[in-house]
Amino acid sequence: MIDQTALVARLAQHRTLRDAPHDELVWLAQHGEMLQFERGDLLRPNQPSLLESLGVVLSGRFAIYVDHGAGPHKVLEWSAGDVTGLLPYSRMSKPIGTMIVDEPIDVLAVHRSHFPEMIRECPTITTALVHVMIDRARQFRSSELQDEKMRSLGKLSAGLAHELNNPASAAARSAKLLAGGLAVAEEAARALGAARLTEAQLAAVDRVREVCTIAPASALTPIERADREEEIGAWLEAHGADPNEVSSLADTAVTIQGLDGLASVLDAGVLTVALRWVATGCTTRALASEVERAATRISKLVGAVKRSSYMDRALIPEAVDVVVSLNDSVLLLQHKARKKSVGLQMDAEPALPFVRAIGGDLNQVWTNLIDNAIDAAPESEHVRISTEHHLDWVIVHIVDDGPGIDPRIRDRIFDPFVTSKPVGQGTGLGLNIARQLVRRNNGDIEVESRPGRTEFSVRLPVAVAPHDAAAASRVGA
């Protein structure tokens, strides 16, 4: 039996409801049920009682945990003075997670069936509860946005590690070979100096070596390389030069005609020395270029991650280059596309104006949409990304060749927890978050889908009208 007088006194001290008139607190006490839970108790969404009621927390502490596939994550916590559970005017039909009691709690539960009467009889309490609902929605939204951002970064992490590992390994390998190659090059240079060549002979050697700097060696198939080695080996044998130089010369762009020119001014003994100097010089230059390419690749990836996360920028609207933003997302998802043999095609309209948006928001939108498109596209098919400028809008189209969205969920595809992916492969929040982010930036997102083609179109307001301003900035980036 509830002591009504004592309960009303406790409600009068309640942080959320203490400003309510006495008669409204009495109504609440008369229509509520006192519930108690011990530490460690679990309250799941399919359980009745508190989860179908408004909960006025009088003592204790508990929290709600949501699992989107990566383990339970605390979303909100309540303690004495808070209100939880279902609220008047809320569209939530049931809690979305599991409540876990951290400290023994006393809670007054008012079943949802009493809400119509409470709205009529308790206007002050109802007003306070509406404010609670707004604050709670804001907290849930903030938590979901952060969780989805972490999931988006998680999607990129494995591919990014692979993308960084390749150029890093190439740079380390080439640098190691370069150290050894420099020693060989120094030895070859000393031997060539000892040969005391004439000016005409030195000029002939320099002409052959310059071929490496002007035209780097082209990539050869195994069969083409074997043919080239055989051709060079036959030439060396015919001219009495050291056949051990075959492999080194095959890696350069030196031609048989160039070798003929060199042989016409050098005898067989000096020819071998000159060819070794030419080959080592070409090899060290190629290794240095490989280190530079690998370092540039790493720099581009790090730059893409930095721009994608906007880790050094405030989350405020600014002029954003959509083309750079899309290219960064494509770069970071390229590994996943290659792994599935899906082609990523980017077709940007020239001189596309900037949009006014929060850059980090857009990068998260592109990551979600392109990642989903790669998942949907069959192997060896394509994901096409294009942009256009129409009136005061920039429109981004992301199209995949997948089976299309199930007609049964097509109209609800942007709703929370709706997904077309198999169980365990999607949270159903990605598209909902994408729409929230696009709308936060005064844009809109639409989808058209049929078997063999699904297109998401994102419309964003133009920030910089003159085309040449955007183009000039993009060229200089």
The topology string of helices and strands comes to: HHEEEEEEHHHHHHHEHEEHEEHEEH
Structural class: alpha+beta
User: Rg from C-alpha positions?
Assistant: 35 Å
| Tally of separate domains | 3
| Discrete helix count | 13
- Beta fraction of the residues? 15-25%
| The CATH class of the largest domain | Alpha Beta
**What do we call the CATH topology of the largest domain?**
Heat Shock Protein 90
- What's the story with the biggest beta sheet? 6 strands, antiparallel
Number of strand elements: 13
Structural shape: elongated
Uncertain spans: 465-473
Helix proportion range: 40-55%
Task: Give your account of this protein's structure.
The chain is α+β, with helices and mostly antiparallel strands and 477 residues long. The chain folds into 3 domains: 4-121, Jelly Rolls, CATH 2.60.120; 159-296, no CATH class; 314-476, 2-Layer Sandwich (Heat Shock Protein 90). The protein contains 13 helices and 13 strands. It has helices at residues 4-12, 22-31, 115-121, 123-194, 199-214, 222-238, 246-250, 256-263, 268-309, 322-339, 359-376, 430-440, 467-476; strands at residues 33-37, 42-43, 53-67, 72-79, 83-85, 98-111, 318-320, 343-347, 355-357, 382-390, 393-400, 444-450, 453-461. Strands 1, 2, 3, 4, 5 and 6 form a 6-stranded antiparallel beta sheet that branches. A 5-stranded mixed beta sheet has the order 8-10-11-13-12, covered by helices on one side. Strand 3 and strand 4 (72-79) form a beta hairpin. Helix 4 packs antiparallel against helix 9, helix 5 (199-214) packs parallel to helix 9 and helix 11 (359-376) runs antiparallel to helix 12. The protein is elongated and about 115 Å long.
